[in-house]
Write a structure and sequence with these properties.
By secondary structure, this protein is an alpha/beta fold. Helices cover 40% and strands 10% of the residues. It has 9 helices and 6 strands. The protein has a 6-stranded parallel beta sheet with strand order 3-2-1-4-5-6, with helices on both faces. α3 crosses α4. The longest helix has 15 residues. The radius of gyration is 18 Å and the shape is globular.
Length: 224
Amino acid sequence: MFTAAIFDMDGLLLDSERTIMKAWLASARALDLLLHEADYIGVVGLAHAESTARLTALLGSTHDYERVQRDAARRLSPEAGVVFALKPGAMLLLQALQQRGVPCAVASSTQVAEVRRRLAVAGIDGFFRAVAGGDEVPRGKPDPAVYRLAAQRAGIDPHTALAFEDSDHGSAAARAAGLQVVTVPDLKTPDAASSLQQLASLVDALQHLDDWFAAAPRNTLPGL
């Protein structure tokens, strides 16, 4: 059985990837630049530095990347009314793990300050012992560094932890750090062959908890 869980955030806990992609595509169109959906999906799961480099190459220059980035940030700002909803089953799964005493952490490609903000806005930041972001490590996913950092901060042995991911890049990062992985597809379907289990949604994870984690400790009365 596993003793801990480490989660990706965007596209896994939060229904954010599709909204972010639509903002980038709309911004590129508004600025008369070409950015295809398939090209954008190719950067999903990468850390900020890697995704920036790829998007810069796709858009043609640093100047054009910065123009699109600013416009997309405006479209995604809280002032624009954008709030990323929890994915189905996310709250129930986190509550169930908390009841079982399973320590949890987040290993995200997103910059750590934004990770903390999004988790707080969604009302789930209190479930996590630690978080790690893509801007805190030399290389992002599929490199395992962000998973190792999250595990270290949370006091988790990665070899006894289960990762939850939605992308091939994230799944590869978790496996390289020593974790087994459950995948829940979002924008694209990860390779199921490398997953312990591939689920349609986090709701489906609830039926597997007895197989993956120890049961919740029972309250006992003194002297019994």
